[in-house]
Specification:
- There is one protein chain.
- By secondary structure, the protein is α+β, with helices and mostly antiparallel strands.
- It has one domain.
- The protein is built from 5 helices and 13 strands.
- The strands form 4 sheets. The protein has a 7-stranded mixed sheet, with no helix packed on it. The protein has a two-stranded antiparallel sheet with strand order 1-12.
- Helix 2 packs antiparallel against helix 3.
- It is globular.
């Protein structure tokens, strides 16, 4: 299936030509639930990981935050219960969950897992991207594969976000594969992605407004003044300001900016 971004309501550079100097190509992944393999670009899918390379862990225990903690098994089961409930006809009395389902979810919520964040936590795969699928791929020489993993709990020194790790590889140099990576004993319930196939699309992205020259930013602000604009049918610049610094997905390199990824770079085989 081909997925593309709908046409923009106007060409913003026709109104502000200087914006062309503050834009870059970006790749939208359009991830959708699927069954990717290690040979595919994916989000939350299996990684092409060498059997002789140790699976990475996060040993930054002092920064791990005890928020929304659960286990992978409990989260998978909770997702199954909710998916089943959403797919069936309403229960008698209008209840969404059966008594058994509610009891099972309550038991998972009551798990005491705080002590587990004091130990090193195995990383969780987040994305795997092959050069062939990403027009904006800009990795180290002789690599054709980017792998993104994160520590699946909040970190106090990362603006209460996961700690991200990037690995660059030459896929043809990877020998025997790791069959089953270790599973973290504890995760935040927000940081276990579903396996998704991707539908990459190249688009143009404009720089965050606060990084634009003052005069240009002010003119854009005046043009996009929602409160004072009486013509609510007119398209606004909110359609094109996409990226901002200081967020979880920062912009340290061209690849990081265009893919919305940033992290601690690691070299792979």
């Amino acid at each position: 299936m081909v997925r593309t971004t709908p046409p923009r309501p106007l060409d913003i550079t026709a109104l502000f030509p200087e914006l062309r100097e503050h834009s870059i190509t970006a790749t939208r992944l359009h991830p959708r639930p699927g069954d990717p393999t290690v040979a595919d670009s994916s989000v939350g899918g299996p990684l092409l990981w060498p059997a002789d390379e140790e699976w990475p862990v996060c040993d930054d225990a002092g920064a791990h935050e005890p928020w929304n903690l659960t286990t992978p098994a409990a989260l998978h089961r909770g997702r199954e219960i909710l998916a089943t409930a959403e797919a069936r006809e309403p229960l008698p009395g209008g209840d969404f969950l059966t008594a058994k389902e509610r009891t099972e979810l309550d038991a998972a919520d009551a798990l005491d897992l705080d002590d587990l964040i004091e130990d090193p936590i195995p990383l969780v795969p987040v994305a795997q991207l092959y050069r062939r699928d990403i027009p904006d791929y800009v990795g180290p020489d002789a690599t054709d594969l980017l792998q993104m993993l994160w520590c699946p709990v909040d970190h106090s020194d990362r603006h209460h976000s996961p700690r991200v790790f990037l690995y660059w590889r030459n896929s043809s140099a990877v020998g025997p594969l790791l069959e089953a990576p270790p599973e973290p004993p504890v995760i935040s319930d927000m940081y276990l992605p579903l396996p998704c196939v991707v539908h990459p699309e190249q688009v143009r992205e404009y720089q965050y407004a606060d990084l634009l020259p003052d005069d240009l930013r002010e003119r854009l602000h005046d043009w996009d003044d929602w409160d004072d604009d009486e013509d609510e049918s007119r398209p606004h610049s909110a359609f094109f300001i996409l990226s901002r610094p200081g967020s979880r997905c920062g912009c340290r390199t061209r690849m990081a900016y265009t893919m919305g990824l940033s992290g601690e770079g690691c070299s792979g085989v």
